Automatic annotation (TrEMBL):
<keyword id="KW-0500">Molybdenum</keyword>
<dbReference type="InterPro" id="IPR017871">
    <property type="entry name" value="ABC_transporter-like_CS"/>
</dbReference>
<protein>
    <recommendedName>
        <fullName>Molybdate/tungstate import ATP-binding protein WtpC</fullName>
        <ecNumber>7.3.2.6</ecNumber>
    </recommendedName>
</protein>
<comment type="subunit">
    <text>The complex is composed of two ATP-binding proteins (WtpC), two transmembrane proteins (WtpB) and a solute-binding protein (WtpA).</text>
</comment>
<comment type="similarity">
    <text>Belongs to the ABC transporter superfamily. Sulfate/tungstate importer (TC 3.A.1.6) family.</text>
</comment>
<keyword id="KW-0067">ATP-binding</keyword>
<dbReference type="InterPro" id="IPR008995">
    <property type="entry name" value="Mo/tungstate-bd_C_term_dom"/>
</dbReference>
<keyword id="KW-0813">Transport</keyword>
<dbReference type="Pfam" id="PF00005">
    <property type="entry name" value="ABC_tran"/>
</dbReference>
<dbReference type="GO" id="GO:0016887">
    <property type="term" value="F:ATP hydrolysis activity"/>
</dbReference>
<dbReference type="InterPro" id="IPR050093">
    <property type="entry name" value="ABC_SmlMolc_Importer"/>
</dbReference>
<dbReference type="InterPro" id="IPR012340">
    <property type="entry name" value="NA-bd_OB-fold"/>
</dbReference>
<dbReference type="GO" id="GO:0005524">
    <property type="term" value="F:ATP binding"/>
</dbReference>
<dbReference type="InterPro" id="IPR027417">
    <property type="entry name" value="P-loop_NTPase"/>
</dbReference>
<dbReference type="Pfam" id="PF08402">
    <property type="entry name" value="TOBE_2"/>
</dbReference>
<keyword id="KW-0547">Nucleotide-binding</keyword>
<dbReference type="InterPro" id="IPR003439">
    <property type="entry name" value="ABC_transporter-like_ATP-bd"/>
</dbReference>
């Protein structure tokens, strides 16, 4: 493992910002650390880079504990959201600056500057000053400067968050290409789930200082290990109901019974459980369709035309409003409908949001 965090915990005074976080990044891997603002991502970056000393826990690089190693001896580069380029230095001087500390002779330094400016496609801007560059070009200079010392680990802390959407998507693809070409072990920090899913080999999803789930983007999306991952990673509908029987395990959803034949739980009868289901997994049927084993009766309250799909909002008596994604021929507002729940595509959680009841239905759940 190139980078490994073991039970990393950090307090600012009495505030617990990072709580017992453990995960690793393999050599050459691109892992996204994803979570809402304030969940502790930057604190983790600072602890890995050595800018803060964690309250407890360890940071290891190539298997060696570096928790007490000063930042300059860690061979880690960081790119932050805000520019840290020197305004009075040219592009090539900015890139070279990262190399002076490394005791690299001037000939080799010039070579590396050229090589990395070429990598980020900015060879023609070597003599420009940062203020003469666009926002996207400035980001690419930062990347070149971070990569030129050939770090063991590249930390990117929301590097695209200050850019507009089109540029963000273009640079995201550039980062993917550059990471592939250099093979640098990368931890990409973001609050943007689309960005994380598009870029990363693997995601570590954080919530309130703790890891809420980790795994490949698709398996986390399709089989979320926690209610937080289910709601944060893509959209999900929730339907709640009590456990009404244990043998076989039965959950009451509206006037319907969901029977989980292969599932056992310690949770007692009467406990409210919550099913998460993706908008694409739901389907709209006529109100009295007899062929649907599990469905909820409701009324269409809103149809939003998003060009490539419709979002149909349905008010149901037995649950929160449901949103169904439909590619074509949407119903009309006011229609009485039935919403079919596909039992195989429900993720069912106990009241803590972390106990999954339907593991047997979803064997690939990863935590
Ligand atoms: P993120 O990068 O995910 O937005 P941070 O690691 O910046 O999260 O912050 C995690 C928590 O720690 C937040 O509640 C934040 O207010 C708090 N925090 C961050 N930096 C400091 C600091 N220097 N002093 C006190 N509290 C801080
Ligand atoms: Mg942050």
């Amino acid at each position: 493992m190139m980078l490994e965090l073991d039970s990393l915990t950090h307090r600012y005074g009495s505030e617990l910002a990072v709580d017992d976080v453990s995960f690793g990044v393999e050599e050459g891997e691109l892992v996204a650390l994803l979570g809402p603002s304030g969940c502790g991502k930057t604190t983790i970056v600072q602890a890995i880079a050595g800018h803060i000393h964690p309250t407890s826990g360890q940071v290891a690089l190539r298997g060696a504990d570096v928790t007490d190693t000063p930042p300059e001896s860690r061979h880690i580069s960081v790119v932050f959201q805000q520019s840290t380029l020197y305004p009075h230095m040219t592009v090539s001087d900015n890139v070279a600056y990262g190399l002076t500390a490394r005791n690299i002779d001037s000939e080799r330094r010039t070579e590396l500057v050229s090589e990395y400016l070429e990598l980020v496609d900015l060879s023609d801007q070597r003599a420009a000053y940062p203020a003469e560059l666009s926002g996207g070009q400035q980001r690419r200079v930062e990347l070149a400067r971070a990569l030129a010392p050939q770090p063991d680990v590249l930390l990117l802390d929301e590097p695209l968050s200050a850019l507009d959407r089109t540029l963000r998507e273009r640079l995201r693809d550039e980062i993917a290409r550059i990471q592939r070409e250099t093979g640098v072990t990368t931890l990409f920090v973001t609050h943007d789930q689309d960005e994380a899913m598009a870029l990363a080999d693997r995601l570590v999803v954080m919530n309130e200082g703790t890891v809420s789930g980790s795994g490949e983007p698709r398996s986390l999306y399709e089989s979320p290990p926690t209610a937080f991952v289910a709601s944060f990673l893509g959209r999900s509908n929730t339907v709640s109901g009590p456990i009404t029987d244990q043998q076989p395990l039965t959950v009451s959803l509206g006037e319907q019974q969901l029977v989980l034949t292969d599932t056992q739980t310690e949770l007692p009868t009467g406990t409210t459980v919550t099913c998460h289901v993706r908008p694409t997994a739901l389907s709209i049927r006529p109100p009295d369709s007899a062929d649907t084993p599990l469905s909820l009766a409701g009324t269409v309250t809103r149809v939003t035309d998003l060009g490539k799909r419709y979002d149909v909002t349905i008010s149901v008596d037995a649950a929160n409003d449901l949103v169904v994604e439909q590619p074509a021929s949407p119903p009309t507002v006011g229609d009485a409908v039935a919403v079919a729940l596909p039992a195989q595509q429900l993720s069912i959680f106990g009241p803590d949001g972390c106990t999954r009841l339907d593991e047997a239905l979803a064997p690939e759940a990863s935590t």
